[in-house]
Amino acid sequence: MTLKKINMALAGYANVGKSVIFNHLTGLHQHIGNWPGKTIEKAEGTLYYKGYTIDVLDLPGIYSLSTHSFEELITREYIVSVKPDFIANTVDATNLETNLILTLQLLELEKPLVLALNMVDLLKRKGITIDFEKFEKILEIPIIPVIATQGKGLAEIIDQGINLTNKPIVPKTPKYGKEVETRIEQLSILLQNIELLYPKRFTAIKLLEKDTEIENLIRAKHPEILEIAQNLSLELEKIHGHSSSIVIADERCLLASHIAKQIRTITKPQKASAHEILDIITGHKILGYPVMLIILGLMFFTVFKGGSYLSSFLENLFSTLQVNFYSTFGNSIYAALIWSGIASFLALIEIALPYILPFYFFLFILESVGYLARVAFLMDHLMHKLGVHGKACIPLILGFGCNVPACLSCRIMETERERFITGLLTVFVPCSAVTVIIAGLVGKYVGVGWALGLYLLIFLIIFIIGKAAAIITPGEPTELIMGMPSYKLPNMKAIAFQTWFRLKEFIFIAGPIVIISGILIEGASLLNLLAPISNFLSPITAGWLGLPPAIGILLLFGILRKELILVLLASILGTTNFILVLTKTQLLILALVSMLYIPCAATIAALYKEFGWKKTLLITFLKIALAIIVGGLALRVLNFIPHLY
Amino acid sequence: MTKEDTISLCKLEKNQLAVIVAITAGDKSAKRLADMGLTPNTHIQILRKTLFCGPIEIKARESNLILGKGLAKKILVKKL
Lengths: 645, 80
What we know:
The complex is a heterodimer of chains A (645) and B (80). Chain A has 645 residues and is of the alpha/beta class. Chain A folds into 4 domains: 5-166, 3-Layer(aba) Sandwich (Rossmann fold), CATH 3.40.50; 179-266, Orthogonal Bundle (Helix Hairpins); 281-510, no CATH class; 523-640, no CATH class. Helices cover 64% and strands 9% of the residues of chain A. Chain A has 25 helices and 10 strands. Chain A is elongated, with a radius of gyration of 29 Å. With 80 residues, chain B is an alpha+beta fold. Chain B has one domain: SH3 type barrels (Roll). In chain B, 18% of the residues lie in helices and 40% in strands. Chain B is built from 2 helices and 6 strands. The two termini of chain B are 12 Å apart. The chains are: A alpha/beta (645), B alpha+beta (80). β10 of chain A pairs antiparallel with β5 of chain B.
C-alpha cells in the first residue's frame, strides 16, 4: 500500500543550501515558528507532488549529533521521536569529507536517508570529480547530485524519498576500528532488551562518547550498564591517551576521510576565479575592514534612508486615514480607543514595511552569498571584548537604525547564551529615534560635545554590561568555530520567501502587543489617569531625576514610540524652544533617561519573539533600573560641578 | 619528535602546512573540534590570519574553517 502523506526532514551543516532547497520545495506553503520552549527557528512547509502531500521540515543547521547546542539536540530528538518517513541529508559536495562526518552520524540513527549532494556545479571550478555510483555503493543510500540554487535534482530527492517511504530501508550503519567496534557490540548486547528512544547501536556509541543526555537516560533505569560503559570508555582512553569521545570522533573522521578518498579525485583547481579574488579582498586582514565598512554602511543607509522616505509617505497616508476614521465614527471615547489600537498597528506597519522588510532582505542576501561569515571572521577579536563573538556586530550595527530588526537578527548567533547577550547589548544601542532626541535636546541646546559625550557614555555602559553578562550568564562562552563558505550567487526566490515569511511572523507576534499597549495608554489618557500616574512617578522623575513632573507622561508615551518624547514635549511645554523652560542639566538628564529607559513596544515584541517573556521582562527592568540609577547619579555629578556649560 | 617542534596553531604564519599533535582544550571544546574534523594527526594549512592575533582561517580535510583565537591557542601543531 502506498502512503499518501509523507513526512520529510532536511538535515545538514549550516550554509549548505538547506533553506534554498526548503524554499524551492515549499514555496508559499510554509510556516515559520519556534521549537516548543526554545527560541530556535522552526521552518515547516508542505509540498504537493504526484498525488502525495509531503510535509517538509527544515532542521537547524548543525555540525554533529552531539549535544553542544540545542540545535543538535533538537535534530536528533526530532528524528527518533517524530520518525520522519525519510531524511534528506544536504551535503556540500565541495566540502565532502567534513560533511560526511555528520552523514555517518545520521546513518547511525537508522532512519531512511537520502543524500542530497548540493553545489555540484562548483566542483569543476575547484578541480574536484566525484564518482557518484561508487559513492552510492559504499554508503548504500540514494545519492543525488543537486544544484539547489537552480532547482536541479530536487525532484529526484522527492522521488527517491517516496520510494524509501513505500519500501523503507534502514541504512547500513558505519563500522569503525576493532578496538571501538568490540566495545560497541558489547554494549549493544547489554542494551538488547531495553526499551530505548534511540537505536541500540547509537546509544552504545553515545555512551562510549560520554554523551551526558544519553548517560542520564540510562542512569535512570540501568545504572549497571552505565557503569560498564564508563569502564569501556576508560579502556579506550588508556589505549589512546585521550578522551574516549575524541577517540570515537577520530574514528568517524578516519572513516569519512577513507570514503572521500575512494570516490573523489582532486586535480588542480582552475585559475583564480572572480569568487576567489572577492574572497581575498573581503577577508583581507587590512583591506577587509574598509570593505566591510562600505558594505555594511551601504546596507545601513539604503535601509534607513530609503526607510525614512517610505515611512513618512506611509505616515501621511495613515494620517488621512485618521481624519476619515473620526469623520465616519465621530469623536466618542470608543472611537478614540479603537483608533489608538489601529494607530499602534499602523505605527508597527510604518516600521515593518520600510525598515524590517529591506533589512531582512539584505541580511539574507549577505548570509546566502557567504559574506556574514567574513564579517564574523574580521570582527571576532573586537566583539570578544564585549563577551560575544564576531557575528554579534551585525545586530549591534543595525541597532543604530532600529532596535527591532536588530533584535530579530540575533538569530544568527549560534547558542542561546550568545543570542541573549547580543540581544541584551543590542537594546542599549541608541536607535535613530533616540538619536533624534539627543540631537533635538542636547545637540541643539547644550552643545554637540555633550551629545557626543552621551554616546560615549552609552558605549561605556554597553561595554560594562557585555563584560558583566558574559560572567553572569550561565553556560560556557562559545569560541568561534564555523565553516567558511565559498562565495556563491544568492537564490533570489528563496530569499524573497525567507524575507516575506519572517516579516509576516513578526507582524503576527508584535501586532497584539503594540495594539494592547496603544489602547492601554489611550485608555489611561481618556480616564484622566495620566496626571495621577505622573504624580505617582514624580518621586522618581522630579525628586530623584530633577525633571518637571509632567515629563512622566512623556516617558509613558515614549514606550509606544521614542520620538513621541520630543514631539509631545513641545505640546506639554507649550513651546519648541525647550531652553526657555528646561535647564541644560534637565535637557541632558531627559535625553539620557530617554536613551536608557524601557525599549519601545515594537522592540519589546521583537525581544519576546526572540527570547520569550522571562528574558524580555528581565531586559526591560534592567533598562528601567539603569535609567533611574544612571540618570540620578548623572544629575548629582552635574550639580556638583559649578559653571559647567 | 621533540617538544620544541610543537607550537600553538596561533604561532604559524600564513600558508604554513602543519599537522595537529594535540588539543589541550577542555573535553567539551576538544569534542567540538573533533566533531568538525580537527583531531590529532589531521593535516592543516593556515589560510588567513587577522590583525591583533584574532581568529584564524584554516583548511582541514578539504574544508575551510574559522577558529576563534581562544581555541586556536589550544591546538598544538608541528610544522610540515
